[in-house]
Amino acid sequence: MGFSTxxxxxxxxxxxxxxxxxxxxxxxxxNQRGARPLLWLILGFLGGPxxxxxxxxxxxxxxxxxxxxxxxATTCPRCLKPxxxxxxxxxxxxSPEALIAQSDRQER
Length: 108
What we know:
The protein is mostly helical. It folds into two domains: 58 residues; 49 residues, no CATH class. The chain has four helices and two strands, in the order αααββα. Strands 1-2 form a two-stranded antiparallel ribbon. A hairpin with a 6-residue loop joins strand 1 and strand 2. Helix 1 runs antiparallel to helix 2.
């Protein structure tokens, strides 16, 4: 009434190949986002599709459009605004002192 030995072997082989595919896909996606691919390949061997899903959360987030970008990107590919090394925008930051100075100028 059960499966034959050949069917079990084929199922196990397909399961292993799918698991290895997700390990490679996790390493590739993490490398595209600036993470270490060898680490994500090992995590992919351990976690399979779960590591692949986790690799989508690597990298930095653009402070302007909130899209995921490479962690060493100097410009966001989506909104084309420049990025600083710490993930903030070097051009579009406003300091509190600048707001006070600007409000003083408007009152005069």
